[in-house]
Structure formats: structure tokens, C-alpha cells
Amino acid sequence: MSHLLIIGGSDAGISAALRAREVNPAFDVTVVVADRYPNYSICGLPFWLGGQVADWRDLAHRTAGELEQQGITLLLEHTAQAIHPTDRTVTVVDGSGRSRRLSYDRLVIGTGAAPAHPPIKGLDQPGVFFLRTMSEGFALRDYLAARSPASAIVIGGGYIGLEMADALAHRGIQVTLVEYLPSVLATLDPSLGLLVGQELQQHGVTVTTGVGVQEITSRDQHLVVAGSGGLNVEADIVLVATGVRPEARLAAAAGVQTGQKGAVVVNQAMETNVPNVYAAGDCVETYHHLLGRNVYLPLGSTAHKQGRIAGENAVGGQASFAGTLGTQVVQVFDLVAARTGLSDAEASQAGFHPHSVPVETWDHKVYYPGAHTLHLRITGDRVTGQLLEAQIVGHRTAEVSKRVDVFATALFNRMAVEALNDVDLSYTPPLSSPWDAVQMAAQAWVKAR
Amino acid sequence: MSHLLIIGGSDAGISAALRAREVNPAFDVTVVVADRYPNYSICGLPFWLGGQVADWRDLAHRTAGELEQQGITLLLEHTAQAIHPTDRTVTVVDGSGRSRRLSYDRLVIGTGAAPAHPPIKGLDQPGVFFLRTMSEGFALRDYLAARSPASAIVIGGGYIGLEMADALAHRGIQVTLVEYLPSVLATLDPSLGLLVGQELQQHGVTVTTGVGVQEITSRDQHLVVAGSGGLNVEADIVLVATGVRPEARLAAAAGVQTGQKGAVVVNQAMETNVPNVYAAGDCVETYHHLLGRNVYLPLGSTAHKQGRIAGENAVGGQASFAGTLGTQVVQVFDLVAARTGLSDAEASQAGFHPHSVPVETWDHKVYYPGAHTLHLRITGDRVTGQLLEAQIVGHRTAEVSKRVDVFATALFNRMAVEALNDVDLSYTPPLSSPWDAVQMAAQAWVKAR
């Protein structure tokens, strides 16, 4: 029997474990899990805190029991302290402080990411929260239950910030969202980010953009957030959602090479520079399918893919990670915003000639009840015609997410914008048009090229 | 100025006209339209008859005025009588019976299809309806308004039959659907067709399958439908929806070659065998992207694509029709059923080795409210791994249609089933899973291969 050891019980680690068991039963698989919550959907925390999900236990993708049934050994509340590549062991400490060494034939590092602490004074006060782990979720839930805050400030207008603004508003809390950039959801063009900002405002969220937070102070049991442009807002709690940084210290200390933002450098086989050591998920650099090089772009869906590849290869497989496309989607109240592909800046930097066209069209034949406007932005290379990016904002019933996935599948195959018109997409009046919105966007782009 | 003449004012003809105007203003464009309803969405008739669409005028994709603004001349209530390729003219007759000849430099034939008249006695009685043109729609609407029928029999369980069963039930009419094959929606596997049949029954429609209708007679102001297996059902009206046949007599009489089911034979440039004569839409054979040969598969979305190609090439372009994938979708009450690709029989006949796997999964993370089961069936080639077909049945809010479009885009690019797992599809818990349902199906197939 050979030993596969995995550090980290979230998306990447568990995906690696499951895939390893699937493809090679000759390996036993042990997963070192820092907390008591293996395989939890951290992406689901906002919905639990917002009240749409009643029981936090439902956030588990699989229970510990289900994982053990797959032949996976879980070491809960164990923290990896050091990796020793020369004798292929890992020092772990259990909940009671006892230390021991576990040996491995192959190791997968899936230590994830931690909230980035922005340069803001006063982040360590009571009432200021980050949201990355189940424990942080519990802490926020307890505070909400004990204090029943009437108001909240969310710092950061990325997708976690947006989801938490939605969640807190859903609980009846008066929310102010503060974003450093000129519009929320900066992965979208500002014209589309503006629509998301309007959706927040229509649901009672105060949106402040183009403002940098400098300091959080407390005054009369309240927190005061101050920043540029005279920002001075008071609230009962503050949630900081300004992105994450890779948690790669353990790997780096063992001689594993790190790169962008300190993330572990891996190849498409998810191998690190250290023999027999693989890494996956939010702690690694991610290969970009269109750029042909690594970026840092941590996402749950990517962690699952990378974990699956790492797990397969660690037990003798030959799989290759095809790379991210930068696909993202978020639901904010009744709106869904999604994107896939290269931003204009990324595209230009990589030598493409991005040309972007905004398009408004209906999600389905307007004569059939319930039609909604889709706001699209499609980008292709002006010289070669290759599709580079698509962004869509529209109603949550307008199949925005899967329309972006049609674009993603086209990007994966390096299709030309014009070729989208050749694809036999499904049509029925209640759901689409003879030319789907995806194709109307493509035609608008071809005309405007 | 050169003359482009188009016979037919439905999807193919109007698409050809619009595209021709777009790419080459040196051609004037005239469209001969048999009725007064150019560019109407015939696919929308069931929704108007069902009452979801209030005004039939809303079924127009574009008004006559909008078409004329694009520089298109419409000859309404004109019927083409004969094509004379030798002197490049077409004889047309207007509403008052006056005949004249129109000359053309290029001709596009878009004469569409007519309802197939199955071998059933008594189809020509009052109260028996077909549904293919606006006029037929008006006739049925008038009859419904005048007689307020309490009961209806729909013969044929294809998508028009299903939509009309839904529409008539929506009006409070007691509907019996009679299908010759063992399950409705025979383009789906019987296991999935069964789900569609159950949905009909749950909404009060009586579904009778495996029964061939032989005769319609009238008795006491009612119609009696009799057939195999002792079928003897009485109702106030009968709708016959047993498919269509290409309307290609005009073309054939002019020496244009016809093939399967009598449809016009065209190449991928949408050229017929007669110089300067193109054809598109429901009157032509359709090139199949995966089979590499023509089939007869009339659909509105295909007619739009073919019309666009024909229009472009007729005025000097070099476009090529990439082919159908057999994609279809229909909404039946709260269910959406969709498919794309080759049936097992088509695949086997073409030399593939189809292997199909049924998969049930949630449309999004089940912890988030409103999750629905998706019933998928995925088919790949057991030898090469190539994706061949996907079928999905699920709730109308479960993004079934665009998930099938992800499969369609994959089929278009001849992807392997396994490669679907490599595509960076969008993920957020309210809308999907870290591995989307598309990918869970792919993984199930890979495991079962």
C-alpha cells in the first residue's frame, strides 16, 4: 500500500482525495483537516448568514461519514506544522497539542487562502469580521444573534462583498457598501458594474464607490469607518471582503517554489518543484487557458478541477489542468452578473487586439410573458476575430449563468466570434430566440468590427 | 442594381433578405409573401392560442414597416406560380388574381413546409385543425371563440403537439393527447419522454401512447377519434400535429433537385443544382454537422441560420452552413425538455459506438432554496470518447435550455466527454455547483465507460 497524504480538507484537498480513491485503490488516502468541517461549501456561508439556508450543516458538500465510506481517512482538527521532503513526512499537531509525523509517498498541498488584510487601521476590533472559514462564519453568526446589529458596513465590492451585502440586507440590516474602485464588481466593465450597483441601491443598500477606507474606530458602541473623500460612516458591524492571499507558508518553508502573490508555483500536472509534492486550489498559481501562463485567480470551481487533477496524478495518472478562463458569476438580489475570458487589459497585454461591443437584447421572445433585458458585452480580437471575453448582467431567471457558460465553452475551443452563429443552440419562445442572445451579441460584434 | 428575389416571407426568406441588405447594398431585395404576415413567429402560435400572448400582432419578429426600412420590398399576398431558370424570372399572382413575371439575378427559395397529412380518415371535417400558418392559427382561434369547446384531442406528441396540449389545457379545455410511439417526445429516450408524459398528466392531460389513430368521425356535434388498441375518444375539436413535409413543388417543377422526403437538395453554400438559385429553411435538406451529410430536420432556428447563409451568398458572399446538431427544446407546463446531438440509432448507423448513461443531479447546490432535479442522459463514443448526445429534462427554472447549449457548443467543437470537465463553467450556489450538472454527467459517463 502506498500513502497519499493531503493537507487541507476544503475543495482542492477533498477533490484530490476522491479522485485518487477513484482511479487507484492501491493508495490509501489521509486528509489533514485544520478544523472540524471537511468538504464544506465556504461559498455558501453568505446564504446561511442571510437566512436562506437554515442549517449550517447543509453547507457540507459531503459529510465526514460519506468521505470515510470512500476509503478516505480524515484527521480532523489536525494542523500541519512542517513538510519534510527529504524523508517524505509531515509533522502534524492534533487538537490537544500532540505532535507526530505522518509519512507519505505522495503529498498534495491544498492549504487554501486567507483573507487579505488591507492597509486599514483598526481591523482587529470587536465587531470587525472577515469571512473565509466556517469558524469565521460562526463568529459572525453569533455576533449577529447576540447583538442584532441594525447597520453594517461592507468593505469591498467583489463577489463576496456583494453576496454579504445582499445577505445582511436580507436580515433587515441597513447596509453600506464601500468600494475602492469606481464601480462594484470590477471584473465587469463599469457600465455593467453600474447596473449591479443600482440593483443594490434599489434594495436599500447604500453604495459608495471610488473611496478608500483608511481607518476603523469605535465610538459609543458603534464602529466608524473613515476614508478618502471625507468618508465617515457609522455602523454596528463591519465586514471586510477585500480579497484573499494564498496560504502557502507551509509549502514555502519546505522549499516549494512560490510566485505571484506568494502562491505555490505548479505546472499543468499540478506538480510543484519538489518531487512527489503536488498542490492545488486557492494556494496555487492557476494556469490560464487563453494566456498560456499562470495567474493568481482563486475560485472554488477551479479548486475542484485542480484538486481532481492533483489527486489523479499523485497516484500515477497523467492528467493535465486545462486552465482557467476567468469565469465568474454572482447573484445580487434579483440580478445575476457573469463573465468569462480576458479583460481588455489582460488581452492587450498578451498581444491580442480586443474590441468590445455592448449589446442589449431580450432573454427570450418578448411576446412571451416574463422577458427580461440582458445586458451583454462581447469582446473579440479585431485582427483574428477570435472570441476573447463575454460579460452578461440580467435577471436571475434569464439564464445568465449558463449563457456565459456557452461563451466559456466557445472560449475553451478558441472559437471565432462569428462562429458562434454557426452553433445550433436551442430555441423555444419562452426561453430564447431563433438567434439566441449569445448569437445576437456575436452578430452585433461582427457588424461593429 | 442587381435583383435578389426571395420566395417566402417566413424565417428563412426574411433572414436571407436582411443578411443580403446587410452585406451588399448593390442588390435590391424583393420578398414574395403568400399571406399578409411576413416574418411572423409561427413557433409562437401555441402561446397565443393558449392565452399567454394577448395580441397576435406581437408574434411578428419585425413589422412590415421595419423590414421595409431595411430596404426590403415586400409583395404581400403574392403567390409564386412558376420559376423560369432559363430567363431568370418568376411568375407571381397577386391577391386579385393578376399574374406577372419578376426577374432575378439571384433567387432564394424559402417556401417552408406544410403539415404532413397522416393516413387518417376524416381529416377534412369541421373541427379538425392543423397548425402551420397564421391563417390556420386564426381559424382555430375563431373556432375556439365561437364554440368554446370543452374537450380536445391532440394527435401527435412531438413538440407542437405538446405545446398545443399545454395551450389548450391552459384555456381550461380537457385535452387527450394521442401518440403513435410508446412515449411522447420521441426525440428523447423513453425514460425521459415518460417524465414529460407524467407532467402532462399532472396537469390534467390524458396521455395515450402506443396507439395509431385510424379514423375521425363525427357524432352528435362531437368528433370521435378511433384507432388501434380499441382507441375510441370523443372530443369537440381535434388538432393534428404529426409533423411536416417540405413544400418544394415549386422548386421541383423548375428542375431543382429534391431528395429526402421531397426536400430541396442544397450544398453548404445553400446552392441548389440550378445556377443562381439558392434555397433555405423547412423546404430543404439540412446538413448535419456530426453526420457530415444531409438530413431532413426542419426547425425555425435552423431556417434562420440557413437563410442568413443563403442571403449572404446570393449577393456574392462565401458563407458556409456549418450544419445542424439536432438541438431541440420544448417547455411543457413547468418542465423543459431539451436535447442535442445524435440519437443512438443515428450514431450507430454513422459508425459511432454510442454508450449512454443516465444521470440525476441537482441544478444548483441543494442547500440553496429552489433546487430541482435535472434528469440527464449523456452519450459518448465508447471507443474514441467523443461526445455524441445530451438530453436533459428538468424544471423550467433550472436552466435546462442553456445547459443543453453548453453541450451543443461542445458537440460543435467535437469535444470528448471527459474534456467537459476541463471547461471553466460558472459557479455560484444559487445557480450551479462547483462541478456543473453538465460536468457531473460527463464524470458519470467516464466512470461508466
Which labels suit this protein?
29% strand, 11 helices, homodimer, five-stranded parallel β-sheet, alpha/beta
Written description of the protein model:
2 copies of one chain form a homodimer. By secondary structure, chain A is α/β, with parallel strands linked by helices. Chain A has helices at 11-23, 45-50, 64-69, 134-147, 159-170, 190-202, 249-253, 300-314, 344-349, 400-412, 437-448; strands at residues 2-7, 27-32, 72-75, 79-84, 89-93, 99-103, 106-109, 113-115, 128-129, 151-155, 174-179, 206-209, 213-219, 222-227, 231-235, 237-240, 244-246, 277-279, 286-288, 293-295, 328-332, 335-341, 354-362, 373-381, 387-395. In chain A, α1 (11-23) packs parallel to α8. The longest helix of chain A is centred in the C-terminal third of the chain and has 15 residues, at 300-314. Chain A is globular, with a radius of gyration of 23 Å. The mean pLDDT of chain A is 97. Chains A and B meet through α8, β21, β22 and α10 of A and α8, β21, β22 and α10 of B.
Short description:
By secondary structure, chain A is of the alpha/beta class. Chain A is built from eleven helices and 25 strands.
Question: How do the strands and helices of this protein lay out in sequence?
Answer:
2 copies of one chain form a homodimer.
Chain A (H helix, E strand, L loop, with lengths): L1 E6 L3 H13 L3 E6 L12 H6 L13 H6 L2 E4 L3 E6 L4 E5 L5 E5 L2 E4 L3 E3 L12 E2 L4 H14 L3 E5 L3 H12 L3 E6 L10 H13 L3 E4 L3 E7 L2 E6 L3 E5 L1 E4 L3 E3 L2 H5 L23 E3 L6 E3 L4 E3 L4 H15 L13 E5 L2 E7 L2 H6 L4 E9 L10 E9 L5 E9 L4 H13 L24 H12 L1
Parallel strand pairs in A: 1-2, 1-7, 2-3, 7-18, 9-16, 10-11, 10-16, 11-12
Antiparallel strand pairs in A: 4-5, 5-6, 8-17, 13-14, 14-15, 19-20, 21-22, 22-25, 23-24, 24-25
